[in-house]
């Protein structure tokens, strides 16, 4: 028989749009607006899932996404929160975590094994005998976890967006709505966000059969929607609180990162269940869940039921149930007396019997264990939290609505650094000290009466407006008093047979806490991890407060001394696509990029840049190895050109330019002749090598400095900082992007270059280390002789906008000479042949110049340079290691040792390989390695251990690789 | 994420900045002992408290000093080097 | 030898769109990407235009402000501000760095580029990728690519900001125009192709598209 009832004002379903879907193979009717669970419940289907550990049948508990009793899969997505996700036409749903369907789940027998599966059982079992462990591991892995991952899940782009406002209000219940209006009326830009499909919060369902509540809601919603200062976002939750009021709002289409100038948290509270045996049967649900079913979806929670309560909320629920046509057979109040007399009178006037100082001792399941058959009532002793059987009775029914109290939804307050305190008047944690710019209102602030909640929202907004510098903002006071607290201090009913659940995600019962404490896990952090309370998908929303209360009683301590565990972002599980957003991956392209791509360049990322690693000549099918050797050979025998635009390039101007460089780098620059260049070695304060570039003097007060590509930004930044510290008269210009560079190298390079410029490029006029400015192919260029990849090489620097023109001209002119472009892989080999180390490839975060044969670059007689003082100290100490060049035996043909393979001497590690490559030109395997100082002499042999454990013989080469004999 | 106020460019998200280490006065390398120098190079104050820090605003290339309480992560003021008095 | 025809730093990313091209200020420029009606349609929603071809001059140094003034140029007093005078726009980028840009082919900037700078003034070679972003949907775009509240920061028309957009450093300002939703963006040329492509992808998702130089410079 359907549980759907007549149309309710403000219902969320659209009866004009019926739809059908299937659940576990069964066809179900629904309306647009129904969630999966509400549609199923309306159809009388109450088994919505099987619990994680014991595979007990489960139905609705909170119906607010504070529990995961109902997790479903539609074949594409899994672990869908059926309680809150709308169902659509044609969906085919199944409960997760079952074998053989939710009703006939093969694992339901585990419930009967539960005595053997106490809390933490997996810490104590399965490892003896050891060889059986893999078997158990396999079983447990299959049994643990919920839905199955769909590896064909479609890839979706969910761009993130930024938003800004004066006041961000989280929660559009009565407090949030009234706060929004107050702030907006003071001229503030407000973003109001609510995780539900429609705003209103408890105003939409906690009526206690008072129809004026929905009128109030309608008025507030109208005012909010008409106010131009308020942006209402529904169907989106606040994921967490991040520094300086940054709150990600997670909606279906993606995350909006809201940067607010102030935040009001009006998130309400999570209803907490009273704990009694079988409180998890389908049909037993929280009072607020019952109210939501009735008012949002026009569904009766059950036909004939009992309400059990430890606070006044049960009375409100009973009134809503009666008004919806439910036969309320009894209201069981665990307290000695009712709270609000008017509520009690209203309930009594409906003919509902009120049992004071009573409890539900246990719920008796139906014969198929899938629902409620009857409840056992008993007297209740609040002191001992146990039932008294002087008067007990049984009531046949098909459902129970239960209420015991509230836990504030304070995660964002905690994350913002709020200090909370336990308030005994309301029996909940409330904010004691809020951080600047953060405010709380409503139930999360411990305010429960509706009229006061509305006022508290106004108060918080007034406080926020004042904080933002508002003048003449009214001071609003909110004072509340209770007969009895809105939450019960200890709503637990002990039962010798257990199954009185605290955490429904993890199947944690009362005795689990007692056992954990007995084992010594008796502080809140240990208790949490040993029992796993609060570690399920709901992250303790419906269970943490009861857990704290139980632990407090076990330890005989006041609740506030137990503490709380830390609630971390995100408030609900958030899809990875949302977190990834669009993903920005900037790439820098040189002026010749298109040319490289069109000429077979195999492009790779070098930091933020795209560079060709090697080129596949047109029509050829070379391997990378073959191409690299060919490119390198071209440089040795004819000519090659590489795009070096990624080099850092900095102009240093001013009368102190030379002096500045002398302090910054290790070498001498004050006396550098115009038209010459020198190696610019940069150290840090510890004397460690950071960068080696080249500094060339263009004029008395003008230097042109280049740095390694990877250090461009760092060197420029450090120059800027030191300039300020040293107070020198220098201007720096970073031209890394504005200038392009290309190196033309090899025996034919001079012949090629001379055809494109009037400049005299022959040896006498243009020696090693010189820099000249001249026109090449009609463009002003700076040309340097730099012997990095070859002795004869010209590094040409031109403005980026004309670089391609130059490149193309050189390539065209060089063609008859055999000019080939070469990439970074060949460059690496070529510089190795030349014997040049690469900083941060051959050196590391500790290498000083003495260890890398760079002592000659240190002008220690200067008054000061960065790192000098440390070098003085280091110079006095014995060397620990030395970077040397080495060769393997001629004809070596086994697998090459790798970079980072260790150098072993008499069973000890004495170094490692930093570079290694086969050189076709030299017909030898060459490399660089760190070795012990006593292994560094020319001709000295040492051994390298490969990944396979083989020892390969290597020999130190102190001179040039090019002068090697066949030896 | 955190916001930081550049003295020249105003308040910006911290992703626009690079941290440059604690602002420290170096001992005079010409007169200090090896021990003092080594302590300066290798050791840092680990205790939380108010620290002067170097920060660099990337898009504009501006270096400045921020005074930050490293326990509460709140910045009390920022200023360009040498302009502490005007901050 | 013939002066080379330059290429916009964003040209690589525009190839696939096959724009109709012409040479402006010695730079091969996309004059239009589609027929005028289509481009007008884009402009009414959100459009992206590559104006890297405009003439620019950069300088910095302790005497830079003084010298620019002496050349007859208006100089903003504060950092992060700009002044427009006729076809010239003078941006004060930092305490003592300036960018001068010219809207149409006047001779002033060409002259400036030839003039020798005195002591304590240094020419800064520029290789900007420069775009005009325009249309009522512009704040939708900014919401996706900028963390700061761009429209609020640039409400003051004389301000400019140096910030990050889609992960790259940019300079931005709001251009005085009838509709009040026209913005200018500059970034390092080596990032021009990336930024063009990234912005255009989002702009097209929002229903807009690329427009050529003809959209703004019909007189050239």
UniProtKB/TrEMBL annotation, chain A:
<dbReference type="InterPro" id="IPR036188">
    <property type="entry name" value="FAD/NAD-bd_sf"/>
</dbReference>
<dbReference type="InterPro" id="IPR023753">
    <property type="entry name" value="FAD/NAD-binding_dom"/>
</dbReference>
<dbReference type="InterPro" id="IPR029043">
    <property type="entry name" value="GcvT/YgfZ_C"/>
</dbReference>
<keyword id="KW-0560">Oxidoreductase</keyword>
<dbReference type="InterPro" id="IPR013977">
    <property type="entry name" value="GcvT_C"/>
</dbReference>
<feature type="domain" description="Aminomethyltransferase C-terminal">
    <location>
        <begin position="881"/>
        <end position="963"/>
    </location>
</feature>
<keyword id="KW-0808">Transferase</keyword>
<dbReference type="InterPro" id="IPR041117">
    <property type="entry name" value="SoxA_A3"/>
</dbReference>
<dbReference type="Pfam" id="PF17806">
    <property type="entry name" value="SO_alpha_A3"/>
</dbReference>
<dbReference type="GO" id="GO:0008483">
    <property type="term" value="F:transaminase activity"/>
</dbReference>
<comment type="similarity">
    <text>Belongs to the GcvT family.</text>
</comment>
<dbReference type="Pfam" id="PF01571">
    <property type="entry name" value="GCV_T"/>
</dbReference>
<dbReference type="InterPro" id="IPR041854">
    <property type="entry name" value="BFD-like_2Fe2S-bd_dom_sf"/>
</dbReference>
<dbReference type="InterPro" id="IPR042204">
    <property type="entry name" value="2Fe-2S-bd_N"/>
</dbReference>
<dbReference type="Pfam" id="PF07992">
    <property type="entry name" value="Pyr_redox_2"/>
</dbReference>
TrEMBL record, chain B:
<dbReference type="InterPro" id="IPR038561">
    <property type="entry name" value="SoxD_sf"/>
</dbReference>
<protein>
    <submittedName>
        <fullName>Sarcosine oxidase subunit delta heterotetrameric</fullName>
    </submittedName>
</protein>
<dbReference type="GO" id="GO:0008115">
    <property type="term" value="F:sarcosine oxidase activity"/>
</dbReference>
<dbReference type="InterPro" id="IPR006279">
    <property type="entry name" value="SoxD"/>
</dbReference>
<dbReference type="GO" id="GO:0046653">
    <property type="term" value="P:tetrahydrofolate metabolic process"/>
</dbReference>
<dbReference type="Pfam" id="PF04267">
    <property type="entry name" value="SoxD"/>
</dbReference>
UniProtKB/TrEMBL annotation, chain C:
<dbReference type="InterPro" id="IPR027266">
    <property type="entry name" value="TrmE/GcvT-like"/>
</dbReference>
<protein>
    <submittedName>
        <fullName>Sarcosine oxidase subunit gamma</fullName>
    </submittedName>
</protein>
């Amino acid at each position: 028989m359907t549980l759907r009832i007549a149309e309710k004002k403000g219902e969320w379903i659209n009866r004009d749009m019926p739809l059908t879907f299937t659940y576990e193979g069964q066809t179900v009717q629904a309306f647009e607006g129904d969630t999966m669970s509400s549609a199923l419940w309306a159809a009388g289907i109450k088994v919505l899932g099987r619990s994680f550990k014991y595979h007990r049948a489960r139905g609705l508990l909170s119906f607010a996404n504070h529990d995961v009793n109902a997790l479903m899969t539609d074949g594409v997505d899994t672990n869908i929160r059926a309680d809150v996700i709308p169902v659509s036409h044609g969906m085919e749903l199944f409960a997760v975590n079952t074998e053989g369907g939710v009703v006939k789940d093969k694992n339901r027998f585990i419930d009967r094994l539960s005595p053997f599966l106490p809390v933490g059982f997996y810490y104590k079992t399965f490892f003896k005998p050891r060889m059986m462990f893999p078997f158990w591991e396999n079983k447990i892995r299959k049994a643990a976890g919920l839905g199955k991952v769909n590896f064909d899940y479609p890839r979706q782009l969910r761009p993130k967006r930024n938003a800004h406002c004066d006041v961000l209000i989280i929660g559009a219940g009565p407090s949030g709505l009234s706060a929004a209006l107050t702030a907006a009326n003071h001229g503030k830009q407000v973003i109001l966000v609510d995780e539900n499909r429609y705003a209103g919060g408890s105003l939409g369902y906690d009526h206690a059969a008072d129809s004026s509540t929905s009128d109030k809601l309608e008025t507030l919603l109208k005012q909010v929607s008409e106010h131009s200062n308020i942006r209402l976002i529904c169907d989106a939750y606040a994921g967490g609180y991040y520094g300086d009021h940054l709150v990600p709002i997670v909606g279906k289409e993606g995350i909006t990162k809201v940067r607010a100038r102030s935040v009001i948290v009006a998130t309400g509270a999570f209803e907490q269940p009273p704990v009694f045996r079988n409180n998890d049967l389908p049909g037993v649900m929280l009072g607020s869940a019952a109210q939501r079913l009735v008012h949002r979806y026009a569904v009766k929670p059950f036909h004939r039921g009992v309400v059990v309560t430890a606070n006044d909320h049960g009375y409100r629920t009973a009134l809503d149930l009666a008004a919806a046509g439910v036969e309320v057979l009894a209201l069981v109040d665990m307290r000695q007396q009712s709270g609000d007399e008017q509520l009690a009178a209203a309930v009594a006037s409906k003919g509902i019997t009120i049992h004071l100082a009573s409890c539900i001792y246990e719920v008796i399941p139906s014969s198929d264990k899938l629902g409620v058959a009857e409840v056992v009532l008993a007297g209740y002793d609040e002191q001992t939290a146990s039932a008294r059987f002087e008067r007990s009775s049984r009531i046949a029914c098909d459902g129970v609505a239960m209420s015991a109290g509230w836990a504030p939804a304070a995660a964002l307050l905690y994350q913002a650094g709020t200090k909370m305190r336990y308030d005994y008047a309301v029996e909940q944690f409330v904010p004691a000290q809020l951080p600047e710019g953060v405010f709380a209102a409503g139930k999360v602030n411990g305010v429960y009466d509706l009229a006061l909640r509305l006022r508290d929202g106004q108060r918080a907004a007034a406080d926020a407006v004042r904080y933002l510098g508002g003048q003449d903002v009214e001071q609003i006071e909110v004072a509340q008093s209770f007969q009895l607290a809105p939450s019960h201090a200890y709503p637990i009913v002990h039962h010798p047979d257990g199954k009185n659940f605290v955490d429904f995600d993890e199947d944690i019962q009362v005795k689990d806490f007692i056992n954990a404490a007995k084992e010594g896990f008796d502080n809140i952090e240990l208790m949490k991890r040993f029992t796993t309370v609060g570690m399920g998908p709901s992250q303790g929303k419906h269970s943490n407060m009861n857990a704290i209360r139980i632990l407090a009683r076990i330890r005989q301590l006041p609740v506030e001394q137990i503490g709380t565990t830390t609630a971390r972002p995100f408030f609900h599980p958030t899809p990875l696509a949302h977190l990834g957003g669009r993903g920005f991956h900037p790439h820098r392209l040189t002026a010749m990029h298109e040319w490289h791509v069109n000429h077979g360049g195999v492009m790779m990322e070098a930091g933020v840049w795209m560079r060709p690693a090697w080129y596949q000549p047109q029509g050829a099918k070379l391997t990378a190895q073959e191409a690299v050797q060919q490119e390198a050979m071209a440089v040795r025998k004819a000519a090659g050109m590489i795009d070096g635009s990624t080099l850092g390039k900095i102009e240093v101007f001013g009368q102190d330019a030379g002096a500045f460089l002398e302090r910054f780098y290790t070498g001498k620059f004050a006396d550098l002749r115009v038209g010459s260049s020198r190696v610019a070695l940069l150290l840090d304060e510890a004397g460690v090598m950071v960068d080696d570039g080249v500094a060339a003097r263009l004029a008395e007060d003008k230097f042109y400095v280049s740095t390694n590509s990877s250090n461009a930004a760092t060197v420029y930044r450090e120059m800027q900082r030191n300039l300020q510290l040293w107070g020198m008269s220098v201007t720096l210009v970073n031209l890394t992007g504005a200038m392009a560079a290309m190196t033309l190298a090899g025996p034919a390079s001079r012949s090629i270059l001379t055809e494109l410029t009037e400049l005299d490029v022959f040896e006498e006029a243009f020696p090693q280390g010189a820099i000249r400015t001249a026109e090449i192919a009609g463009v002003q260029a700076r040309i340097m002789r730099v012997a990095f990849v070859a002795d004869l090489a010209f590094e040409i620097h031109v403005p980026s906008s004309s670089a391609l023109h130059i490149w193309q001209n050189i390539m065209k002119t060089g063609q008859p000479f055999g000019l080939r472009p070469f990439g970074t892989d060949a460059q690496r080999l070529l510089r190795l042949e030349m014997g040049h180390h690469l900083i941060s490839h051959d050196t590391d975060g500790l290498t000083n110049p003495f260890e890398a044969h760079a002592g000659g670059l240190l002008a220690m007689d200067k008054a000061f340079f960065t790192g000098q003082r440390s070098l003085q100290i280091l110079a006095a100490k014995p060397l620990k290691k030395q970077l040397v060049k080495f060769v393997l035996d001629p004809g070596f043909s086994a697998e090459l040792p790798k970079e980072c393979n260790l150098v072993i001497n008499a069973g000890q590690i004495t170094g490692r390989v930093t570079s290694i490559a086969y050189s076709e030109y030299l017909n030898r395997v060459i490399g660089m390695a760190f070795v012990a100082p006593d292994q560094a002499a020319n001709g000295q042999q040492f051994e390298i251990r490969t990944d396979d454990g083989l020892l390969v013989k290597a020999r130190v080469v102190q001179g040039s690789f090019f002068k090697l004999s066949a030896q | 994420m955190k916001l930081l106020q550049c003295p020249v460019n105003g308040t910006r998200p911290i992703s626009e900045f690079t941290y440059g280490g604690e602002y420290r006065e170096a001992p005079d390398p010409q007169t200090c002992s090896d021990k003092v120098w080594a302590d300066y190079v290798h050791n840092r104050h680990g205790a939380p408290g108010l620290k002067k820090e170097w920060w660099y605003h990337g898009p504009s290339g501006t270096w400045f000093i921020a005074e930050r309480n490293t326990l509460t992560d709140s910045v009390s003021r920022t200023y360009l080097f040498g302009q502490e008095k005007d901050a | 030898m013939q002066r080379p025809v330059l290429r916009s730093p964003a040209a690589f990313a525009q190839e696939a769109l096959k724009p109709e091209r012409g040479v402006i200020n010695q730079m091969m420029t996309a004059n239009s990407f589609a027929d005028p009606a289509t481009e007008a349609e884009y402009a009414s929603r959100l459009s992206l235009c590559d104006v890297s071809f405009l003439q620019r001059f950069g300088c910095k140094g302790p005497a830079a402000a003084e010298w620019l003034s002496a050349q007859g140029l208006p100089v903003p007093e504060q950092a992060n501000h700009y002044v427009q005078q006729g076809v010239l726009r003078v941006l004060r980028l930092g305490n003592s760095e300036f960018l001068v840009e010219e809207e149409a082919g006047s001779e002033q900037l060409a002259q400036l580029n030839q003039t020798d700078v005195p002591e304590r003034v240094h020419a800064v070679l520029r290789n900007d990728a420069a775009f005009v972003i325009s249309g009522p949907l512009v704040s939708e775009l900014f919401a996706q690519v900028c963390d700061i509240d761009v429209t609020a920061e640039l409400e003051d028309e004389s301000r400019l900001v140096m910030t990050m957009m889609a992960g790259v450093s940019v300079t931005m300002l709001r251009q005085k125009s009838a509709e009040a939703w026209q913005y200018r963006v500059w970034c390092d040329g080596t990032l021009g192709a990336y930024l063009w492509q990234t912005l255009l992808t989002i702009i097209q998702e929002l229903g807009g598209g690329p427009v050529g130089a003809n959209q703004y410079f019909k007189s050239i």
